[in-house]
Specification:
This protein is α+β, with helices and mostly antiparallel strands and 72 residues long. The protein contains one helix and five strands, in the order αβββββ.
Length: 72
């Protein structure tokens, strides 16, 4: 077996390790950018008196619907 083939193989293995490290770093960076919870909002009316609306509320919450906060 020629030594140059072994050198090329070692070079390829080191390049693969470097690429794996780079991919892991990028994946961790992408994971840190994702929000943990998605915020959702909706606008509802308080009701009507005749044709007039009594007002509107904007409701904020999270995707799991555990926490809902009404607008001031």
């Amino acid at each position: 077996m020629d030594k140059s083939i072994l050198r090329d193989y070692i070079s390829i293995l080191s390049e693969k390790e470097e690429e794996d490290k780079r991919i892991e770093a990028l994946e961790s960076e992408i994971a840190s950018m994702k929000p943990e919870q998605k915020e959702v909002s909706d606008i509802i009316t308080k009701g009507k008196r005749g044709r007039k609306s009594l007002g509107m509320y904007k409701i904020h919450g999270y995707e799991d619907h555990k926490t809902l906060n009404k607008k001031e």
